[in-house]
Design a protein that fits this description.
Layout lengths: L1 H16 L5 H18 L8 H11 L1 H17 L6 H35 L10 H34 L4 H45 L1
């Protein structure tokens, strides 16, 4: 459990403290996620709701691995991509999806810690493996749908600039562009809100444990 706590601290720093990821934090995050996925396979780690959330958090770094490996392959083998702009947009959207999934899962872990600290008995029926898996699945579905919308918007932008289109494509372009812009704005404010919520939760937990 100590290693899992260290991993959570690393992820909190990476996604909720640092304003943007860098090469060092990304590399450490990938190593931590790999170690955590191996550790969670051990029989010594009990299958609890927190472990389910942490496992889903570690798996989110697969999106980062895909982006990093793709960039390394293109750079090392000088691979020429027919539509480099769309590929770059896809890799960026995967990184964005990773950030959003990780922030939401970290908040779920923080909320569970809050329930354990202040409502251990009353919240027992909520803190189940089934609910944790359902929550993780919902988060993945919503964020990947967001990623698909962003990629569709990038694809339509590329198609409208390269060739003339008919009215339906223009209508789809305006709709996807407006939806993507709205979603990006909501994601930005949601990110700020999640940071505030996490700080408040751990502030309450810290002072509660100190008073005890």
């Amino acid at each position: 459990m100590k290693d899992l706590r260290r991993y959570l601290v690393l992820k909190y720093i990476q996604y909720l403290v640092l304003s943007s990821s860098n090469a060092v934090s990304t590399f450490l995050g990938l190593l931590g996620s790999l170690y955590t996925m191996i550790l969670l396979q051990s029989a010594k780690v009990s299958s609890k709701s927190t472990a389910v959330l942490i496992s889903s958090l570690a798996k989110a770094d697969i999106l980062v691995s895909v982006s990093v490996v793709s960039e390394v392959v293109v750079w090392a083998f000088d691979v020429r991509i027919s539509s480099s702009a769309l590929t770059s947009a896809l890799l960026q959207n995967l990184l964005t999806a990773n950030v959003h999934i990780s922030c939401l899962l970290l908040t779920c872990v923080a909320f569970e810690a809050y329930l354990i600290t202040f409502f251990p008995t009353e919240s027992r029926h909520l803190r189940t493996v089934k609910n944790a898996r359902l929550t993780s699945r919902i988060i993945w579905i919503l964020v990947m749908a967001e990623c698909a919308l962003f990629q569709t918007d990038d694809l339509l932008k590329a198609s409208t600039t390269s060739a003339p289109t008919h009215n339906l494509c223009v209508l789809l372009f305006h709709f996807s562009s407006a939806a993507a812009a709205l979603l990006r704005s909501l994601s930005y404010f949601l990110g700020i809100l999640l940071r505030i919520v996490n700080v408040y939760i751990y502030y309450k937990i810290f002072f509660s444990m100190s008073n005890r």
